[in-house]
Fold:
Amino acid sequence: MNSSLFKEKEHLDSSEYNNLFGDPFWNMSGNSKAMKFYLQLNERDKALILKANYVKMIEKARERNFNKAADCLQWWLDGTGFTKNIDYHWLRSKSEVIVAENINVERFQDRINNINFNIKLNKEGDFTDYINELQRQFTGGIFGELYYMSGTSTIISSCDFKITRTKNNFTLFGTIIHTWWDRYDWHEGANAYIPSFGSIKDSDALLVEKHCGAKPFRMESKWKQTFNKTFQTGNLKLK
Structure:
């Protein structure tokens, strides 16, 4: 920025900058003096102010112990672009993740129990199969850390199993591999409400990417679920 911009900025105190965009949640408009100053800036100088705002978001997130969300926002701001691995223990501590995981497991159960599968088992012996991937898209609960970290994400589950029939009893054993993923990126025209910061436009983040080196990236996590169950056809429950 040039020196005249620094002089102008000296006439605005920090509270005016903090309220630059207001807080629509509480029906509060931005400070008119700060907004007038902001609108006269070029793209790069706007991006620098926006970047500073994201740094404040990271600080606030850590104050709330939302460290995973803060880490991801910092990863984006640092502009590495590399895939970030998310601890699956943390993910599975979120009810939304467990619900999505269980939905995929139940869908596997329905496939295994269908009549066509049972026809294949009309003789005693072994049967091995690999069920194609199932996926479930879901959104974290509003105001929860998962929501601020990823918004809407996806769990992909694949099942590899073997089943043995002895008379009327079946023994099913195998593995379900769950892959959670999301792309940490932004979309023109979208926005999200962030406590203490109001409604934040994705276009702001895109401007920071353009001028400040921030980059989108992939978040990913994997975990394995094994099972070994004895059942009678039509009475299978995977846990």
